[in-house]
Amino acid sequence: MKKTIVTLAAFGVAAAGPAAPARAGGPARTDGLERFHHQPVVWKKCTLGPDDQVGRDLDKAGARCADITVPLDYANPGGRTITIAISRLRATERRIGTMVLNGGGPGPALDMPPYMRGLMKEAGTRFDLVGMDPRSIGRSTPVDCGWPTATWIRSAGLGRASFDRATALARDLARRCGERHADLLPHISTRNVARDMDVVRAALGERRISYSGGSYGNYLGGVYATMFPGRLDRAVLDSGIDPAVWGGLLAKSMVGANERAFARWAGWAARRHRTYGLGTTRGAVLGTVRRTIAESGREPLRLGRYRVDDTVTPVVLLNLLQEDRDPARATLADAAAQLARAAAGRPAPPTGALKENLEFLLTGAESRYGSAQSALICGDGGAPGDPEYYWREIERNRAEAPIFGGIGHNINPCAFWPVEPREPMTRIGAHARALLVGATGDTRTTYEGTRILHGLLRGSRLVTLRGADVHAPYQIGYGNACVDDAVHRYVLTGRTPARNITCEK
């Protein structure tokens, strides 16, 4: 469903006092929003042009699309407006209600209804499934800063020169956004996305909505439940984020989980040395990878038209460390083998997922993706602005996390963001009969984050997938029958399990 790319959060801290009607964590007021809540919704075909594959797929599935008008600034609902793009796939069986979808990122969600209908099986036919692109993303008043890369995520590399290159890139990316979108950036935040979602609810004529969110979408669900108590019916929150570490602390918290999952992948690759040539033991495979990164630090690896240095090589590996099923592990092993050949000075024109990732990381073909993601993450929270802060953290953790520590502790554009957050981040805490799903080996949002969010959402239940290295196990279609059955029973009946559930891989 989604591109195979990494999604991390930037360094974030609560900023100055609120400039919008609602206090952080309190019920949201609707002053002046009546015209938005009662606007007519005009449904239309989803295809926008000959190159619009997303629109064609939605139209083929029978979905329709619409643009919902919302205030740019909820503190001034009589001022400038923007549009939020939604898609809807109507229920075909006895209808339960409307379910809004978000697949994380932060990234687009317009494409999700057909995918989720298939994933949800019988439950999928009982809901109007609504995909909503968050503001700044996809078709919802998109932000495109003209970046030379599709993401701000880089490693600090192996030395100060590499870190300085990563710092210069982060500074340049932030500058580009400030120059192009100074009018929009102050109003892009998860709190405003939640407000937009509630306008969508009202415009669709729903007293309450159901919701399914994974990764960032999980965090958005917690923010919505807190800001708009009583307006959620069923809510499936897959792979949670500890709200206290949303921002740069999230990336830091992910480092250990990724190092451990990568070591387990190395054991898998060692058993297949005759196929990939990376080493016959776990230690040998890890040694090959570390040498590859070291070589890319001495001189960028030549992979076709791309030059890959030590700020990029670890990011490719992280991007492809998606989950622990054999096809995903094979994809990572194939890319690691191509990188190792290049490090040995052998011809290595990139193919497959490696080629896709290098295009994503080293060209501006998908500038809109990273631009919009950073606008939302940096809009939620600021970041320490002193590069030395990050350098000290990188050096302190280098030995413990030799592959991914340089990513988790590195600087990013939020350190140089041209606007300050308009209001503090939401202090999540609400009564919500939600069902949370988390895998113990989650490599993107750690299992501990899911457990913490479960504790903050009173009345929720937790489904744990034990022994799996996978992010968003329900939404990606990992295929664990125990997890899937628990989710589908809850969505169909609206009743949470009597107690938390543990499923085995």
UniProtKB/TrEMBL annotation:
Cleaved signal peptide residues? 1-24
Output one GO MF annotation.
hydrolase activity
Keywords from UniProt, A to Z, are:
Hydrolase, Signal
Q: Which spans of this chain does the record mark as coiled coil?
A: none
Q: Which SUPFAM superfamilies match?
A: alpha/beta-Hydrolases
Name the InterPro entries on file.
AB_hydrolase_fold, Pept_S33_TAP-like_C, Serine_prot/Carboxylest_S33
Q: Does the keyword Ribonucleoprotein apply?
A: no
Peptidase S33 tripeptidyl aminopeptidase-like C-terminal domain: residues covered: 412-503
Q: Which family does it belong to?
A: Belongs to the peptidase S33 family.
Q: What is this protein called?
A: Pimeloyl-ACP methyl ester carboxylesterase
The organism named in the record is Actinomadura namibiensis
Q: Lineage in the entry? A: Bacteria, Bacillati, Actinomycetota, Actinomycetes, Streptosporangiales
